[in-house]
Amino acid sequence: MLLVASYVFYGCWDWRFLSLIFVSTLLDYVCGLRMASRPKDKRKIFLWISLGVNLTLLGFFKYFNFFTANVIDFLALINVDTNITLLNIILPVGISFYTFQSLSYTIDIYRGEIKPTRNFIDFALYVALFTQLVAGPIERAKHLLPQVIKPRTTSMTHFYEGCFLIFWGLFEKIFIAGNLAKIVDPIFAAEGSYEGLSVLVGMYAFSFQIFCDFDAYSNIAKGLGRCMGFDIMTNFNLPFFVTNMQDFWNRWHISLSLWIRDYLYFPLFQALKKFKGNIRVYITLLISMTLIGLWHGASWNFVVFGVYHGILLAIYVMIRLYCQTWVNPKSQLMKGVWHVARVVFAFHLIAVGMLIFRVQTMGQAARMLGSLITNLQCDQTVINSFVLFLLIITPLLVVQFGQLKTKNLMFLYNQHWLVKTFAYAFMSYLLLGWGIMQTEEFIYFQF
Questions:
Q1: Nearest-angstrom CA–CA distance, 308 and 306
Q2: Which of 100, 122, 226, 365 has its CA 20 to 30 A from that of 48?
Q3: What's the angle, vertex CA 59, arms to CA 63 and CA 225, rounded to 5?
């Protein structure tokens, strides 16, 4: 029933692309069985088949026009005429997510970390489970597949926890992300010169918009799964309270970060044995983060976004020991001030990356970043936008400070019933009175 429901759910967008999920599922199911019946040295051919077909499908639908357009531009630059034409390719929703999820199954079987399932329906449901099919989290077979195979148990506690996560996700999407979009979109849609402080507000607002938008989907996916007896992994863990970029990627889009770490970074690090010391780390970080950027979309701003974070991670590896030696406050007050300063600094590095992520062209990014230095004018419109931004994110910050203090993402759910009643009533008022109720796609649907 869940498999049929998941296929109907995805097919409501475009039934033709169900064939892609089915081909990927059938291929990896067969490759998994073939690998399990052979010694490890003879499994590689089936691993390469799985990688080759899945990545070819992903590459064609997501990157064919991007690379073709760049080849055409390069040939034109050197005065070479070409008859190459772009194709009218529709990007299947969620193809990056379910491709990586299916690949983790065959890679783990190749490594001997899991055994394949012989029930095709169980494996097909693992790949296509509707709760997190189109925008993650990217689940692993070792975590989700056993939950599919075994009989699930549910309880009223699970149901209430799931409903809370769904409600919190709706609040993040409809009230916070929806209203922040009204600040962000006009700033990034403007052409010509930019006002630096307006760009700064846009950076801040989009950083919280994309977080609330994606965390909303992740919470709704986790909540739906919880109601049905599934434990869907946590995808975000207070990423704006970090003090360095390494910790940021341990807390932001956790399922993707762990996937890249386990299936790309570690194997690549082992393969680059000819490089010694930290050079090996720097190269591996730059390649891994560049591919994370490219995973997000076929555009140069995503590539630059990945390179930017790769450079930040390499710099952090380079200087972290020196910083611990040079700056070591003794008093509790100064330790607190130093911690807050690092959080603020890290947030601004993150916000610059989010600006690169959001722009349409790198020329636009250069103009917007340049305005932060050359055109810092403040008018009433900027002040109004900043005040509105603070008002919108205040409920989020109140909850997140509680989550940070208690180290519990279910902080609000675990409060006294009177506190919860007031909080739910206030959030419902904001949702119904000020929420953006028209249809709005989640930002990560495009990936």
A1: 5
A2: 122
A3: 105
Whether residue 71 contacts residue 55, with contact meaning beta carbons closer than 8 Å, is answered with no
Hey, what amino acid is at 128? A
CA-CA distance, 224 to 131, in Å (whole number)?
A: 6
CB 96 within 8 A of CB 447: yes
How many helical (H) and strand (E) elements, i.e. helices and strands, does the chain have?
A: 18, 0
pTM assigned to the model: 0.90
Q: What ranges do the domains of the chain cover?
A: 2-149, 156-446
Specify the pLDDT at position 447: 61
* Cβ-Cβ contacts under 8 Å for 127 (sequence gap 6 or more): 21, 24, 25, 28, 98, 101, 102, 105
Phi-psi region of 252 (alpha: psi -120 to 50; beta: other; left: phi over 0): beta
Residue keyed to tokens 């209203």: 179
Q: Does residue 445 have a pLDDT over 70?
A: no
Torsion angle of C-alpha atoms 77, 78, 80, 84, degrees rounded to 10 = -40
Q: Per-residue DSSP letters for 295-359?
A: HH-SSHHHHHHHHHHHHHHHHHHHHHHHHHHH----SHHHHHHHHHHHHHHHHHHHHHHHHHHH-
Rounded Cα distance between 422 and 399, Å, is: 13
Catalytic one of 143, 296, 339, 416: 296
- Output the CA torsion sign for 408, 414, 416, 418: positive
In the predicted structure, residue 178 carries a pLDDT above the cut 90 = yes
Distance, CA of 27 to CA of 47 (rounded, Å): 11
What is the tens place of the pLDDT at every residue in 351-405? Answer: 999 999 999 889 999 999 998 888 887 888 889 999 999 999 999 999 999 999 9
Short-list 235, 233, 223, 219, CA closest to 172: 219
The question of whether 253 is a catalytic residue gets the answer no
Q: Is the peptide bond before 146 cis (omega within 30 degrees of 0)?
A: no
pLDDT in tens, 238-256: 999 999 999 999 999 999 9
| Banded model confidence at residue 446, pLDDT cuts 50, 70, 90 | low
